[in-house]
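Course exercise 7: structure representation. Students receive a sequence record and must write out the corresponding structure in token form. The form below is the worked example handed out in class, using Dihydroorotate dehydrogenase (quinone), mitochondrial (629 residues). Read each field label carefully; the graders check that inputs and outputs are placed in the correct fields and that the protein name is recorded exactly as given.

STUDENT ID: A-19
EXERCISE PROTEIN: Dihydroorotate dehydrogenase (quinone), mitochondrial
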Amino acid sequence: MANSNSIVLVSALCFLSLIGVAYSTETLNVHGIVYCDNCRTQFFTRISEPLTGAKVRLECRESEGGKVTLTKEADTEELGTYSIPVEGDHEEEVCEVILVKSPKEDCSEISNELHAKLSARISLTNHNGITGPHRMANPLGFMKKEVDPSPNHITRIREKANPPVPFYYPIAPLLQFAAATPPSAMAARASRKLLRDFLFKRACAAPAASARHCSSAAQTAPKIPHFSKKGRLLTAATLGLVIATKIVNPFFALLDAETAHSLAVSAAARGWVPREKRPDPSNLGLEVWGRKFSNPIGLAAGFDKNAEAVDGLLGLGFGFVEIGSVTPVPQEGNPKPRIFRLREELAIINRCGFNSEGIVAVAKRLGAQHGKRKLDETTISSSSGEEVKPGGKAGPGILGVNLGKNKTSEDASADYRQGVHTLSQYADYLVINVSSPNTPGLRMLQGRKQLKDLVKRVQGARDEMQWGEEGPPPLLVKIAPDLSKEDLEDIAAVALALRLDGLIISNTTVSRPESVSKHLLASEAGGLSGKPLFDMSTNVLKEMYILTRSVTTNINIVQGKIPLIGCGGISSGEDAYKKVRAGASLVQLYTAFAYGGPALIPQIKAELSECLERDGYKSISEAVGADCR
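STUDENT ANSWER:
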């Protein structure tokens, strides 16, 4: 029955996409790429260099008389791509993209060859058998005035002109749509980036052997080959993603938020999501608690509450995934509806109340996954003769387990100790969640006396278990952003005194910042997450970093800093970088993932890597706490 329902759902999505294509005729979008023709071959090769900041012009003229009817200019973005929206139908006109200005003086010559001038003609009508709102123009190139034919020059150009291309699949948007995402600016940016990356990959499909033609003299351009079947499939996949973003997103937005979220988890659990194949940038790798993280970007607790989709989520490119919160006894949580979207603000209000299948069900699921993973690793190791070195107990990534208490429990420490005894064997780190605003009395456990007593008891439960050479999993506490300076000082004192392994800063807020205070849903009870939380949580993060980085006496430093995980409002690589500079060794996101989808993860990692390079940091660890020094 489940498979049948899945087939019906996918069929319905495809049907809706086709309907959208058939009737979406108001605006056409012209996409293309501009490059520097390093070898004066007059066609795009693997060593051609995409130009950022080049200016192009779209012109349409009457087929008879030549009167200009449309003129629109655009500048190229990263990877040399441009996008020009066009209103109306231009079936009776001749339209073409023309080079206007190059950003490089030494690469600004425009070919006078007829084939070069005609290469960017494009049909701007829906009556020519082409469906969909997007039109792909052929690449256009400025020629180098002088060519250096030396091998070193060619190698240097090739390395610069071939950055890694993202991994996207047509199925990629499914998780984005199911994660309660309406059409949004973030989804649109991710879609445009995918399109730019695809155009670059398509343009790079020319034979690498063309590098042999480099010389100081212009070469006769060979006939431009037709795209292969793979190229056509990539074109269809890209258009499918754009169509789905505009057509299927609204369909999922009509669903109840929690139903849509369940579909997202199911998609990830069944492997209906893309897998990141490329290695992470080397400057993002770091070691925390003796665990090696390939990158510091994690998925916060709350998305996969019951450990249903750990492998699929790690496969998206997260450095670590945190499941939960998991309670000892199954509980349904608070009554529905309990999740509310604030779309324009990129925020969510939730009052779920620790809905959980319980530690027994989660332990069975993690145990089965762990056993299968060990079997796979043994098979690979024996067949290849090489030692398999996973990142953690979840395979290539790190797995965190977030523990909660039951709503009706009178002994909170007993609940957390039970979670430790049952689930710690599967966790790379454990989290005591004492900051959810949706469980009555839970936040009172953040008080100095209550927190100290709780942490000591949970640490005791962990330490009384038998551990191998790697030792017990680190124990962290997740705190709220709605804390006074005195509260933060008390928490820092407890963390330092008990040698707590880390803190997660922060959970959702019960306050309503000015940016959302006038929203119709602002009065709904629950915790607010997303973009409006960023400044508040970052300020708390910075304050806690300062409080825990060191305690000095007249003799020496008696206590080092405590690793912090920054969480709250991250939606870009720049946001993640600000968290790191404020003191976070690792960062987590959730709401932005719901709005931006899988395409957001590689985008954030790339932007974060660029931020580090821009400021001269060789590794992410060097930037931790930079704003507090």
